[in-house]
Every structure is written in structure tokens, then in C-alpha cells.
Amino acid sequence: MQNWVREFYAKQAEWSGAYWGDVQDWHRQKARWVRSVIGPPPRLVLELGAGGGQDAVALAEEGYTVVAVEQEPILAGHIRRLIKSHPKAQVQIVEADFYKVRLPEGKFGAVCYWDGFGLGSDNDQRALLRRIRRWLAPNGVALIDVFTPWHAAKSAGYGFKVGKATRRYSFDGEGCRWIDRWQSDESGEVVVQSLRCYSPADLKLLTEGTGLYLSGVKPGGMMDYESGKFYKNVPLEKAMWFVAILRPR
Q: Which terminus of the chain is more exposed, N or C, with fewer CB under 10 A?
């Protein structure tokens, strides 16, 4: 993956503080929704880009065995600390780049990727979807957060404070990419993330030849940047993201 990715996530974690802390109620609510889609345990679940590990632990508390892949050492360290405080949660950490890591094929009942799909080019996304297909069991399901172009375009120009940094959005209309710029309030250092956005129709085209198909979507929430309010339940055409439910062909 691109060289900027590790630096961006390391700085985002350091400046925002968003990845630290314990499992919260909303992580557990999300885990219960995942269970409603993938079916009850026992199942082996793979989480890509596990961040601080809260989602992985919440799923493990539901009774699943979770393999959490996270390449950033400071985030993997937090996952290890979290596991120690939740000793009944069956979570295995793999500290690696999920574009390169070797994992058992055909063994996972579910693959989850939250809040990060769209790094790199369309070809990069297709390559990842092919990997996910190989990891999935025949009756498995992939759940992937996908950011929408309509919300990304609407967010352009807005900025706000997050922890020890200022975050500002812009939108590349030609490339259909959401640009997420962070600047440290202390050092002035800047890191930038670029994510390709997709509509469900775009995603259906992207999955062609990957061995997966889009079987459904669950709209995510919406941020109203004028009022500073977040709305949890909105229709797809207003949503900031959707969860793509992908199954093997």
C-alpha cells in the first residue's frame, strides 16, 4: 500500500485519541448487527485494519473467534492491552499489511473492513476484494464500509477540531476521492488521506471479476457540518457511508 498510509494512521491516532479507550455500547450494538447478518457463532471472523481493536473485541464478546489484522504498531499495542482487560474475548492479532499478509484461505465465515475502504486505485480495491474472496468460506460474507461521493462532495471546505489537530475536507470530483487533511495544532505537521468513494452502482461494477457480488447495503449516518450534529439513521441518498454486504458468487 502507499507509503503515506502508515504515517497518516499513526499521526491520526496520536493527534485524535480516537482509537484509544475501551469497548463502548455502540461497538457492541454494531457487533450485534454483524451477528444478525453473518449468523451466530462459532465462526471465524477476520477484521482488516482493526485500529484500536474495539470492534474486534466486541465481536469476540458475541462468541466469535476474531483475527485482527493491523499494521500500525501503536494501534496493535492498544489491541493487546484491550485483550488483556477482556480475557474471555478470543482475539488473535496479526501485525501486518493486509494487502500482503498470508492468511488461511476459505476459512473465514466473515471478513469485516470498517472505515478505510478506498485507499489507492480501483485496481487496488479489486485486488483486495479478490483476496477477501479467497479468505471467505463458501457461505461467508464480507462487510465493508464504503464512503459515498454525494456526502464527500458536500463536506468540501468544512473543518473542525479533533483532539490535538484540525481536520479539513476537500473533494476531488474528477477522481471521485474524499481528501481528509489533518494538521497538528502543536507542530503544524500535516498528513493527508485520499479515499475513493463509490455509490452502490459503482461498487457493483468494481466487484466484477472479483468473485464477490453486492447482496445488500446498510446506510450509515450523516454529519450535518452546518449544525455540527450527527444523524445516525438517514436514507442512503443522504448517508456519509454505507455498509456493503458482499457474498461469494
A: C
